[in-house]
Write a structure and sequence with these properties.
10 helices; Serine Threonine Protein Phosphatase 5, Tetratricopeptide repeat; 2 domains; mainly alpha; globular
Length: 179
């Protein structure tokens, strides 16, 4: 469940590459400056909406099918759908992100990190992928890289409560390792 919260849910962007979507930068700026967590949550939902869908109907169909398979915990089917999605639309960051999420859920952290790196090449402000990277490093007991990943996510989205809590815990743990 935590992975779904951090990596994001579902919700229309133009084209398979939302990075150039003119709606994103003002939303990121508002998200960064939002003082009210409820406002931040609305802005986050708008960003996920832009990230998650394209005007390529085949990709949207694969997204729906992949999300459905994830919800049923049919990870093999989800990987097939998301794998086809990244083949059809290699510049669609959310296809890679969803596949990274499935790999994470399967415990295949190496494959998940590879896909997250691709997400961040396409969309450097993908706070969900950064938080997912933090989760992977936590699973691997790599506290310093986990801390950096969560901190980067918070630079973009300061109101991510799970990431904020993780940073507090990790800062204490990392400082404890130094003493």
């Amino acid at each position: 469940m935590l992975a779904a919260i951090l990596w994001g849910g579902a919700a229309h962007a133009t084209g398979a590459n939302s990075r150039n979507d003119a709606r994103l930068e003002p939303l990121f700026q508002q998200l960064k400056n939002a003082k009210d967590p409820a406002v931040a949550k609305l802005l986050e939902a708008q960003i996920w909406h832009i990230w998650t869908w394209t005007d390529i109907e085949d990709v949207n169909l694969l997204m729906r099918m992949g999300i459905g398979a994830m919800e049923r915990e049919d990870y093999e089917a989800a990987l097939l759908h998301f794998g086809e999605m990244v083949r059809i639309a290699p510049d669609f960051a959310e296809g890679w992100n969803k596949r990274a999420t499935v790999y994470y859920l399967q415990g295949n952290y190496t494959a998940s990190v590879i896909d997250i790196e691709r997400v961040l090449e396409i969309e450097p402000k993908h706070f969900g992928a950064l938080a997912g990277l933090g989760l992977i490093y936590l699973q691997l007991d790599r506290k310093k890289p986990a801390l950096r990943a969560f901190q980067k996510a918070l630079e973009i989205h300061p109101n991510m409560p799970n990431a904020r809590d993780a940073v507090k815990d990790l800062q204490r743990a990392v400082e404890g390792e130094r003493t």
